[in-house]
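EI: anyone free to look at a 310-residue chain?
SC: sure, send it
EI:
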Amino acid sequence: MLNLMKIIAVLIITAVSFVRSTPGFAGSPSLTMVQVPVNEAMYTGCGGVIAPNVNEAYMQEVVKLVNDERTAAGLQPLRRVLQLDQAAQYHATDMAQDNYFEHDTYDTGEKPVCTWVERVTSYYENWDLLGENIAYGYTTPKEVMDGWMGSQDHRDNILNPNFNEIGVGYYLGGPYGSYWVQDFGSRSNVPELGNIPASLNFFYSIEDGRLIPETYRIRPEDIGTGLPVTWNTGDNRNWLFTSPNTGTYPDDFIVSLSGFNTTEPGTYSGMITVTASGPVELSGLSKDIFVNLRVITGSITQVYLPLVQR
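SC: here you go
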């Protein structure tokens, strides 16, 4: 299989330079998404078809390996998004079924259909930056990632600090046995789970017998596009509680503490994870809240400052 291994990358381009260099391109084609089984006739056209995933575990492992490399390089991890998954999976399937290996899309008989940018844009609109890696013949996610990381152009895509989203496609079959696609992108106005603090601090006075503050109230929301986010919470300490544990914006939840040692001074730490379960654009996004509790022997004095208007 080693003699069949081959990889290829494309240069990253911006939306502005793409539009200027391709007169007449006015955005994504008007397409209707159609679910098509893998074993049916070969695809035609420039995307617009939702090709089924054939190995979700492999796709997720590629994303993990990409983010491992980015974390090691001091970069933010990429968020896996459905639209780039669909663009990548279509291309992996189409290359195998139509027997070609290029970034641009072809139909049977080496008839060019559209550029790779047009294909990705048919799934992933309003992007600021795009990139793509493709490969064939590799048998595992680690093998293909090793190949990409060993090639400077592919490595540059994987470690580009300006990308924030990724999609992966994988197809088992075709003349070369397996086909792999990574699509990278970034968008200015993207769904983002927000209005969630990085940390919360509580203080308990043994002398006063009281907790300050008693609770926190948090309302998760999509600060990127304003979609109504559905969320759930989880915590990792038996003295740390959230209620309710699920909701949809504008619902909020209360953070409270109970069951910790109120007779001995000490410091406690815990974590709450808020995870979005819908809509699909936000599904799987999560934010952690670090919770700190300090139990002290002395009294707590609260100072209220007057409001000054000018």
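EI: Confidence is low (pLDDT under 50) at residues 1-5, 11-41.
SC: 👍
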